[in-house]
Amino acid sequence: MNALITGASAGIGKEMVSLLAQRGYHVVLVARRKERLEAMLSDLPYGGTVIAQDLALPGAAKALWETCREKELSIDVLVNNAGFGKVGRHCELDLDHLEQMNNLNVTCLSSLCRLFGEEMKKRGRGCILNVGSTASYLPIPYFANYAASKAFVSSFTRALRAELMPRGVQVSLLNPGPTHSEFGDVAQGGEAFYRGKPMVMEAPEVAEAGIVGMFADHAEIVPGPLNQALPLIVRLLPKSFLIKGAGHVMGSRLDSPT
Prior knowledge:
This protein is of the alpha/beta class and 258 residues long. 48% of the residues lie in helices and 15% in strands.
């Protein structure tokens, strides 16, 4: 059995590698940092395959799929974990970073589901876990593109689940809240990203919730009681009020006044 995890070199993805290995999977580790991935192989009881690749580049999904075919790796579990965000005024974001974010968070994820999902559909079995975010529940000023990209992941995953369920393929969505990982370093830099955020979770507990929920065929997995309350809050309170509040919180994190 083979499980492929993107963003496998750190954070939630790295923890999922261990969890799937414990369940008897040969793990295909995908990320940019080859040395980090290779250092993880010795801890995998059923072995692993390292594919060092930047999934934010155009055409990355097809290239990864073709590499798996060349290595004769039939993927039973696909975990689309790779993604990143940037805090800042949208019109001031680096354009290359913006396009890479969309390529990784949206285009690559969708394409990998298309390519590996087709194979699972033909076999009549398989599992797909897409990692979204609680940021998907609301438009977030100064984090606008990331939140929108995760809203895509949420909508897309729900629809794909309905398409593939009759064909024996399980599709689940993991929506973590703030989680200590390298994500914060990329989004804003160190602990600044987590400042003022209650109940920041740790990567191992989020990863375990995701893997357990996926194999239990849950449609959506939201780790943590506060995160689980967010959809209800969004439904009950005026969206304009919530967006303004989110903008105030995120805007206060910028280096200069908004």
